[in-house]
Write a structure and sequence with these properties.
single chain, about 950 residues, alpha/beta, Anaerobic Ribonucleotide-triphosphate Reductase Large Chain, three-stranded antiparallel β-sheet, 28 helices, about 40% helix, cobalamin, cobalt ion binding, RdRp_reductase_class-2, cobalamin binding
C-alpha cells in the first residue's frame, strides 16, 4: 500500500455518532414489497413450538438441547436446529436464553433500524418502520440471511462485530511479524478468519541489516500455523480459517509451494508407522501448515512466460532487483504438482484482481480472506449477506425481477447501516472499513434455480441465466450505493479514487452488454441489469458511491442451511438424493425437491415424473431412468455421483459470473482421482485466460484419508548386541496335503467371483485362491498369480493383518453393493476379499482396531451392547444381524438388481451419497456431531449442526 488508509476523525467515535457528519440528503423513502400496511409480519405466520435435541451421530451423546422453541411452521427441522444452537444468545437453561425466532430477528433488525435512524438513512419514521417490517419479513421467510457474526453479536452486550472476512498485512520487521500473530489470534478467537500476503518479508536468500541471512516468510508461517492450531476458531474444536499468499516473484516461492505437499508425505509416513494421524488425532499436531489455505499470487508477466516457455525473474524484497532467473514453466509445473498431491496452493491472478480494483490510488490488493472471495485493501473487512435465489422463482419458472431488485436494495441498505455501529478486532481494520465501507452481497441456491428451470449447470443457457442474475444483483447494489452517497455521503476514500471507481463501474456495465443471451429469460434479466448499470453510472457521477465494493459469492455454509437452501453459493447440487431430518427425531432419504420441478419444466407428465423420481430414489442418478430422454440427463448433473460436472464446467461458470462481482467466488474445482498434473496445469491456465480472480482445485483422494482405526504401536523389541550380526531368514511352513478350507461366492456391483481360503490344522490361514472372470482370460490369469503370491507370503509368515491393512479401502471398479450381509458395500473386489478374510480368520480384537465387524456385532453396537460378546454360529443364520444391516427402503420384486439403499449409519447427504456410489467421499467429519460434512465453496459445512470447516 502506498499509504495508511482510513484516518477519518470519526473512526474512534461512538457508535451512534459514526457517520452522522456524512448526512447530506433528505433520507431514503422505503416502499412496501412483502408486507401489508397495518399488519406486523409475525401476525401473518403460523407459529409452533418445537424441541431441539441434537446428538452426536457416532456415539449418541447429546450435544445440544433446548425445548419449546418457537418457529414458523414452514421452517425445516434442520434449519430450526441450526439457528437455535448457533444463533440464540444466552446461557442454555437460563431465563435470559432466547427461545423464539422472533427474539433473534428483533434483536438484529431493531438494532439496524435504530442505527439507520440515528445516521439519517430514512426520510421519515414511517420509512424506518417499513424498513424494519420488510427486513423482518424477508428474514423469517428465509429470503436472505446476514452472515453469521451478525446473528452472533448484533444487539448483544458483546462487541458488535458484523464481518466474517478480514485481510491483514505484515511488513519486513520483527515487530510487524509478532503483531501479525497477535491480530490473527484475536480474529480466530472471535470465530472469524483472515488472510494476508507475506511477500514483503525478505527471502531466505537475502541478508539482514545485521549481516546475517534472513529466515524467510515460510519459517514465520510455522509460528503462525502453531498459533492458529492452538487458538482454533471461536474456542471451538474446528481449525482456524486463514489464507496465506505469496507473490510468484518472491525468491522463496518454490519452498512455499512445496510446504504442504511435504507435510502430506510426513503424514503418510507417520500413519504407516502406526501414529494417530486421523483428523483430530493426538499425533496430527506434529504436522505443520495445516491451518491455512495457501495461494500463489501470479502476474500476467509470469503466465505469459509460462505460455511462451520463457524465463522469469525472482526479485529481492529489499531492492527489487532480480536475484534469480528461473524457467517459468518449471515453477508452474511445481505448483500444479503440489496441488495434485495435496490441493494446495491455489492461484490468485494479480493483474486481473487489480484491473477491477476501485481504489488503486490508496493501495494495491495483495491478499484475500480464507476462501478467496473477499479481495480488497490490507487491514480491511467485509460484511456479507446472501439472497436465496429460489425464493424469487415464480410458479411459471420466471425470475421475479422487480421483487429481486427491491429486495437487493433493502438488504444492501441494511448492510451499509451495519458499518455505522460495527466494532472491529483491530483499530486499523476499523479505520479502513469505515473509510471504504466494503460490502459483499451474494446469493445461494443458484444450482437449484438452474435445475428447476431445466438449465444444465454446464451449458451456455445455464451460464447466461447465472450471469444475468449476478449482473442484476451487483448493478442494483451499486445503484443503491450511489443513492446512499447522495443521502449520507460517499465513502471517505472515494475522492482520490473517483476516476478509477468510475472506470470499474463502466467495465461492469460493458461486460453486461457483452453477454450473449441464449433464451428469453436471460435476455429479459440482462436488459433489466443493463438499465440498473446505466442508472447507477448516472447517479454515481453526481453523488459518487457509498461503498468501494458491493458483491462477491461466499460459501453460504451455515446460513444456506438456515435458509433451507438445496445448494450453497455458486455450487451445483451435491447429489440428487439428500438426507432429511424428521420432526420428533429420525431421518429419511428423499429426492431433492428441485428434481420434480425440473421434470415438469421439461414437459414430463405427472406419472412420468413419479416414475423417474422413484428411479432416482433407488439408484441415486438419472441414467436409464424410465421415460427420461438422454438429452435431458445434463440438467440433473451434480457435483458428485454417476454424472458429475466436468472440471471445466465449474471453471466456465465462474468465468461467466466474475465480471459482475466486486470480489471473487468461493469455489473449489473438483477433479477426479485420475486427473494428471497436466490437467491441473490446464485448469489453472484456463482460469487465467478466462479472467478469474482466484482459483483452487481439489483432486479426489489426494489428501491422506481418515483411517478406520489407529493401529496400536508394538512395543520396541530389544536390539541385538552391536558386536553380533544376527541374520533372520523366514522359513516357509507348507500346508499339509489335506487341509480345511472355506469357499465363499460373492458379488460386488454385479461382478461375481469365488474366494477359497485354506488354513492349517492348528488354525491360521495359509492359502488363498480367487476366481474372477472367465477361464483363460487375462484377468483370470492375473488373479491366479496374485493368489499364489499371497499364499506363498502367508506360508512364509506374513501376517494376514498386514494384507488387510494394505488392501482394505483400495478403490477401483467394480465397486458398490455386495450380496454379503456382513459387508454391504465394497470399494473394490480387493476391498471385499480382504474384509471377508479378516472376518473369517482374524480375532475380534484385531478386527475391531481395523473397524471390520460382522453385521451382528454392528447391531450389538447400535443396541449399546458389547460387540465382543456376540458369537455367530458358522452354519446358522444370524437373523438379528441380517435385520440390522438390511435395507431401510422397500424394493420391488420385479427389479432384476436390487438398488443400493442408505445404510442405517448414514448421517448426512454426503454419507448417503457414499452409500449410493459405493465409495468414500473426500470430506472431513464434523467435530461437533460426527457426521460427514459437505462441500460449501472452498469450505465444508455440516448439515447436522451447521458447523463449518472455515468461513462462517
Amino acid at each position: 500500500m502506498t499509504e495508511a488508509v482510513g484516518t477519518s476523525p470519526d473512526a474512534t467515535g461512538s457508535r451512534s455518532q459514526r457517520g452522522a457528519k456524512k448526512r447530506q440528503g433528505k433520507g431514503l423513502t422505503i416502499e412496501r414489497v412483502w408486507t401489508t400496511d397495518g399488519v406486523h409480519p409475525y401476525d401473518e405466520i403460523t407459529w409452533e413450538r418445537r424441541d431441539v435435541v441434537m446428538t452426536n451421530w457416532r456415539d449418541g451423546s447429546v450435544n445440544f438441547e433446548q425445548r419449546g422453541v418457537e418457529y414458523p411452521d414452514f421452517w425445516s427441522v434442520n434449519a430450526t436446529n441450526i439457528v437455535t444452537s448457533k444463533y440464540f444468545r444466552g446461557a442454555v437453561g437460563s431465563a435470559e436464553r432466547e427461545w423464539s425466532l422472533k427474539q433473534l430477528v428483533d434483536r438484529v433488525v431493531k438494532t439496524y433500524r435504530k442505527a439507520g435512524e440515528e445516521n439519517g438513512y430514512f426520510a421519515t419514521p414511517a420509512d424506518a418502520e417499513i424498513f424494519e417490517h420488510e427486513l423482518t419479513w424477508m428474514l423469517v421467510h428465509q429470503f436472505f440471511s446476514f452472515n453469521s457474526p451478525v446473528w452472533f453479536n448484533v444487539g448483544t452486550s458483546s462487541a458488535q462485530q458484523v464481518s466474517a472476512c478480514f485481510i491483514l498485512s505484515v511488513d519486513d520487521s520483527m515487530d510487524s511479524i509478532l503483531n501479525w500473530y497477535r491480530e490473527e489470534g484475536l480474529i480466530f478467537k472471535g470465530g472469524s478468519g483472515a488472510g494476508l500476503n507475506l511477500s514483503r518479508i525478505r527471502s531466505s536468500k537475502e541478508l539482514l541489516s545485521s549481516g546475517g541471512t534472513a529466515s524467510g516468510p515460510v519459517s514465520f508461517m510455522r509460528g503462525a500455523d502453531a498459533s492458529a492450531g492452538t487458538i482454533k476458531s471461536g474456542g471451538a474444536t474446528r481449525r482456524a480459517a486463514k489464507m496465506v499468499v505469496l507473490d510468484v516473484d518472491h525468491p522463496d516461492v518454490e519452498e512455499f509451494v512445496q510446504t504442504k505437499a511435504r507435510e502430506e508425505d510426513k503424514v503418510r509416513a507417520l500413519r504407516d508407522a502406526g501414529f494417530d494421524m486421523d483428523l483430530g488425532g493426538k499425533d496430527i499436531t506434529s504436522v505443520q501448515y495445516q491451518n491455512a489455505n495457501n495461494s500463489v499470487r501470479v502476474s500476467d508477466e509470469f503466465m505469459r512466460a509460462v505460455e511462451a516457455d520463457g524465463e522469469f525473474g525472482l526479485r529481492s524484497r529489499t531492492s527489487g532487483e532480480v536475484i534469480e532467473t528461473i524457467r517459468a514453466r518449471d515453477l508452474f509445473g511445481k505448483i500444479a504438482q503440489a496441488a495434485w498431491e495435496c490441493a494446495d496452493p491455489g492461484l490468485q491472478y494479480d493483474d486481473t484482481i487489480n484491473d477491477w480494483h476501485t481504489n488503486p490510488e490508496t493501495g494495491r490488493i495483495t491478499a484475500s480472506n480464507p476462501c478467496s472471495e473477499y479481495l480488497s485493501l490490507d487491514n480491511s473487512s467485509c460484511n456479507l449477506a446472501s439472497m436465496n435465489l429460489m425464493k424469487f422463482l415464480r410458479d411459471d419458472n420466471t425470475f421475479d425481477v422487480p421483487a429481486f431488485v427491491k429486495s437487493v436494495e433493502l438488504v444492501f441498505t441494511a448492510m451499509d447501516i451495519s458499518i455505522c455501529f460495527a466494532d472491529f478486532p483491530t483499530e486499523k481494520i476499523g479505520e479502513t472499513t469505515r473509510a471504504y465501507r466494503q460490502l459483499g452481497i451474494g446469493y445461494a441456491n443458484l444450482g437449484a434455480l438452474l435445475m428447476a428451470t431445466a438449465h444444465a449447470y454446464d451449458s451456455d443457457g445455464g451460464r447466461a441465466v447465472a450471469a444475468a442474475i449476478t449482473s442484476l444483483m451487483t448493478g442494483v447494489s451499486y445503484r443503491r450505493s450511489a443513492e446512499l452517497a447522495g443521502v449520507v455521503g460517499a465513502y471517505d476514500g472515494y475522492a482520490r479514487n473517483a476516476a478509477a471507481h468510475t472506470r470499474v463501474m463502466r467495465k461492469h456495465a460493458a461486460a453486461n452488454d457483452e453477454v450473449r443471451p441464449v433464451g428469453d429469460e436471460d435476455r429479459r434479466i440482462l436488459a433489466a441489469a443493463g438499465e440498473e448499470w446505466q442508472r447507477g453510472l448516472a447517479i454515481g457521477e453526481r453523488n459518487g458511491w457509498r461503498n468501494a465494493q458491493a458483491s462477491l459469492l461466499a460459501p453460504t455454509g451455515t446460513i444456506g442451511l438456515a435458509m433451507d437452501c438445496d445448494t450453497t453459493g455458486v455450487e451445483p447440487d451435491l447429489a440428487l438424493v439428500k438426507f432429511k431430518k424428521l420432526v420428533g427425531g429420525g431421518s429419511m432419504q428423499i429426492v431433492n425437491q428441485t428434481v420434480p420441478r425440473a421434470l415438469r419444466s421439461l414437459g414430463y407428465q405427472e406419472e412420468q415424473v413419479e416414475a423417474i423420481v422413484e428411479y432416482i430414489s433407488e439408484h441415486g442418478h438419472v441414467v436409464d431412468a424410465p421415460g427420461l430422454r438422454p438429452e435431458h440427463y445434463e440438467v440433473f448433473d451434480c457435483a458428485m455421483g454417476e454424472r458429475s460436472i466436468r472440471p471445466m464446467g465449474h471453471v466456465r461458470m465462474m468465468a461467466a459470473l466474475q465480471p459482475f462481482l466486486s470480489g471473487a467466488i468461493s469455489k473449489t474445482v473438483n477433479l477426479p482421482e485420475s486427473a494428471t498434473v497436466a490437467d491441473i496445469e490446464d485448469v489453472y491456465l484456463q482460469g487465467w485466460k478466462l479472467g478469474l480472480k482466484a482459483l483452487a482445485i481439489y483432486r479426489d483422494n489426494c489428501k491422506v484419508g481418515q483411517p478406520l482405526s489407529a493401529k496400536k504401536k508394538e512395543p520396541a523389541k530389544a536390539e541385538a548386541p552391536k558386536s553380533e550380526v544376527v541374520e533372520y531368514r523366514p522359513v516357509r511352513k507348507r500346508l499339509p496335503k489335506s487341509r480345511p478350507s472355506r469357499t465363499t461366492s460373492f458379488s460386488v456391483a454385479g461382478a461375481e467371483g469365488y474366494l477359497t481360503a485354506s488354513s492349517y490344522p492348528d488354525d491360521g490361514i495359509g492359502e488363498v485362491f480367487l476366481k474372477l472372470g472367465k477361464q483363460g482370460s487375462t484377468l483370470a490369469g492375473v488373479m491366479d498369480a496374485f493368489s499364489v503370491a499371497i499364499s506363498v507370503a502367508l506360508q512364509y509368515g506374513v501376517p494376514l493383518e498386514t494384507y488387510v491393512e494394505k488392501f482394505v479401502n483400495m478403490r477401483f471398479e467394480p465397486a458398490g453393493m455386495t450380496d454379503d450381509p456382513d459387508i454391504r458395500i465394497a470399494n473394490s473386489v480387493m476391498d471385499y476379499v480382504f474384509r471377508r478374510l479378516a472376518l473369517d480368520f482374524l480375532p475380534f480384537e484385531q478386527r475391531s482396531e481395523l473397524g471390520i465387524l460382522t453385521s451382528a456385532e454392528r447391531a450389538a453396537e447400535v443396541r449399546g451392547e458389547d460387540p465382543a460378546s456376540v458369537h455367530v454360529v458358522d452354519d446358522g443364520v444370524d437373523l438379528a444381524g441380517l435385520a440390522a444391516s438390511a435395507p431401510t427402503v422397500e424394493r420391488r420384486v420385479e427389479e432384476p438388481a436390487p438398488a443400493p439403499a442408505p445404510t442405517a449409519r448414514a448421517g448426512s447427504s454426503t454419507e448417503l451419497l457414499e452409500a449410493v456410489q459405493g465409495k468414500a467421499a473426500d470430506a472431513p467429519l464434523c467435530f461437533t456431531c460426527g457426521t460427514k460434512m459437505r462441500p460449501a465453496g472452498s469450505c465444508y459445512v455440516c448439515e447436522g449442526c451447521g458447523s463449518t470447516s472455515g468461513c462462517s
